[in-house]
Amino acid sequence: MRIVLVGPPGAGKGTQAAYLAKNLAIPHISTGDLFRANISQGTELGLKAKSYMDAGELVPDEVTIGMAKDRMEQPDAVNGFLLDGFPRNVAQAEALDAMLESESMKLDAVLDLEVPEDEVVKRIAGRRICRNDSAHVFHVTYSAPKTEGVCDACGGELYQRDDDSEETVRKRLEVYHTQTEPIIDYYKAQGLVVTITALGKVDEVTARAMEALRGDKAA
């Protein structure tokens, strides 16, 4: 299957992408991984992306599209892939369509993870990270530490990242609504969108997604 995963920040796209890719035996292709791999390997596209990033500028669509194209042409993606973070806007969606059409391929589904905005803010703004080890992550509501502000694992101080503040989260949501959400209507016109609620436990959402991808549009 060839799938695009969409949803607002905090919808759990990364977590669900990993589970779904494993269940469907297809590679999980995320924009973040593409950038890190190309930059670390010093590819031409990676060097271009780094030059924009170092200058504090947005990486142009054509660079992101080029990275995605290279990754989708690798042997493990012959039988399908799950795209996470790409396409990020309608221009990228159109480029992806053209790219697939040139290879006589097409998308099978666009999985839209739906989460109420207030829940997104609650999920992200409630995160607390250990200063000693960023792998130790807590949540003031869902996985609170035994002692407020103290990491259960090592006793380090827990803090809220600047990116996780409510003000920043709401700005990120505005960007999502303006730039990325329009691709849902773009793909709806092609009959590709399947929308599920991303509320509940991780395994419940995964099961719901698998049912939807098998054709149960009521999932």
UniProtKB/TrEMBL annotation:
<protein>
    <recommendedName>
        <fullName>Adenylate kinase</fullName>
        <ecNumber>2.7.4.3</ecNumber>
    </recommendedName>
</protein>
<keyword id="KW-0547">Nucleotide-binding</keyword>
<dbReference type="InterPro" id="IPR006259">
    <property type="entry name" value="Adenyl_kin_sub"/>
</dbReference>
<dbReference type="GO" id="GO:0004017">
    <property type="term" value="F:AMP kinase activity"/>
</dbReference>
<feature type="binding site">
    <location>
        <position position="172"/>
    </location>
    <ligand>
        <name>AMP</name>
    </ligand>
</feature>
<feature type="region of interest" description="NMP">
    <location>
        <begin position="30"/>
        <end position="59"/>
    </location>
</feature>
<feature type="binding site">
    <location>
        <begin position="137"/>
        <end position="138"/>
    </location>
    <ligand>
        <name>ATP</name>
    </ligand>
</feature>
<feature type="binding site">
    <location>
        <position position="200"/>
    </location>
    <ligand>
        <name>ATP</name>
    </ligand>
</feature>
<comment type="pathway">
    <text>Purine metabolism; AMP biosynthesis via salvage pathway; AMP from ADP: step 1/1.</text>
</comment>
<dbReference type="InterPro" id="IPR007862">
    <property type="entry name" value="Adenylate_kinase_lid-dom"/>
</dbReference>
<dbReference type="GO" id="GO:0044209">
    <property type="term" value="P:AMP salvage"/>
</dbReference>
<comment type="function">
    <text>Catalyzes the reversible transfer of the terminal phosphate group between ATP and AMP. Plays an important role in cellular energy homeostasis and in adenine nucleotide metabolism.</text>
</comment>
<keyword id="KW-0545">Nucleotide biosynthesis</keyword>
<dbReference type="GO" id="GO:0005524">
    <property type="term" value="F:ATP binding"/>
</dbReference>
<feature type="binding site">
    <location>
        <position position="161"/>
    </location>
    <ligand>
        <name>AMP</name>
    </ligand>
</feature>
<feature type="binding site">
    <location>
        <begin position="85"/>
        <end position="88"/>
    </location>
    <ligand>
        <name>AMP</name>
    </ligand>
</feature>
<keyword id="KW-0963">Cytoplasm</keyword>
<feature type="binding site">
    <location>
        <begin position="57"/>
        <end position="59"/>
    </location>
    <ligand>
        <name>AMP</name>
    </ligand>
</feature>
<keyword id="KW-0418">Kinase</keyword>
<dbReference type="GO" id="GO:0005737">
    <property type="term" value="C:cytoplasm"/>
</dbReference>
<dbReference type="Pfam" id="PF05191">
    <property type="entry name" value="ADK_lid"/>
</dbReference>
<dbReference type="Pfam" id="PF00406">
    <property type="entry name" value="ADK"/>
</dbReference>
<keyword id="KW-0808">Transferase</keyword>
<comment type="similarity">
    <text>Belongs to the adenylate kinase family.</text>
</comment>
<dbReference type="InterPro" id="IPR033690">
    <property type="entry name" value="Adenylat_kinase_CS"/>
</dbReference>
<feature type="binding site">
    <location>
        <begin position="10"/>
        <end position="15"/>
    </location>
    <ligand>
        <name>ATP</name>
    </ligand>
</feature>
<dbReference type="InterPro" id="IPR000850">
    <property type="entry name" value="Adenylat/UMP-CMP_kin"/>
</dbReference>
<keyword id="KW-0067">ATP-binding</keyword>
<feature type="domain" description="Adenylate kinase active site lid">
    <location>
        <begin position="127"/>
        <end position="163"/>
    </location>
</feature>
<dbReference type="InterPro" id="IPR027417">
    <property type="entry name" value="P-loop_NTPase"/>
</dbReference>
<feature type="binding site">
    <location>
        <position position="127"/>
    </location>
    <ligand>
        <name>ATP</name>
    </ligand>
</feature>
<comment type="subunit">
    <text>Monomer.</text>
</comment>
<feature type="binding site">
    <location>
        <position position="92"/>
    </location>
    <ligand>
        <name>AMP</name>
    </ligand>
</feature>
<feature type="binding site">
    <location>
        <position position="31"/>
    </location>
    <ligand>
        <name>AMP</name>
    </ligand>
</feature>
<feature type="binding site">
    <location>
        <position position="36"/>
    </location>
    <ligand>
        <name>AMP</name>
    </ligand>
</feature>
